[in-house]
Amino acid sequence: MNKFTTPQEVAADVAHSFREDGNRWRQGALAFDINGRPCTLLAKGVQFSLHGAIASRTIGQYELAQQTLHAFELALGFPPRRGKIVGAPRFNSWHNETGRAVADVIALCDRVIHSNTSPQVHEYLNPDARGDEAPSR
Fold first, then answer.
1. Which of 62, 47, 60, 57 shows the shortest CA–CA distance to 109?
2. Would you place residue 132 in the very low, low, confident or very high pLDDT band (cuts 50, 70, 90)?
3. Alpha carbon 71 to chain centroid distance?
4. Which end of the chain is more exposed for a tag (fewer CB within 10 A), N or C?
5. Which of 14, 55, 48 is nearest to 31 (CA)?
6. Residue 133: its pLDDT value, please?
7. Side-chain-facing half-sphere of 61: CA atoms under 13 Å
8. Coil/strand/helix, residue 21
9. Domain boundary assignment for the chain
10. Is 47 helix (H, G, I), strand (E, B) or coil?
11. What are the φ and ψ backbone dihedral angles of 44, each rounded to 5 degrees?
């Protein structure tokens, strides 16, 4: 079981890993194996995209994965979205831009670490929790 409980903790561990060895970061697929081939089994990955690095740290923790993906989107200035992220998060296009460097990804992790996105993330993952009710007719 993973030891993380907040998006900030996930972001800190991703940043630490990429700072320790920038070659662990790679654009493209979620993960790459030792031969540089994309792999779908995260446990076989030795290089990761940002999304893959997040996914590898939140295996079995669906809510934390969702909170973390939302926190990264908010840190990049994407408008909040309602509900669950299905498929690729919006930050993948930013991540995979030509010229993007591991330092950019680490800086984004640092923004998440120092953010207080929990209330916004909770609100958008649980839109019913806001107390908004449909107007009565």
1. 57
2. very low
3. 7
4. C
5. 48
6. 38
7. 19
8. coil
9. 7-122
10. strand
11. -90, -5
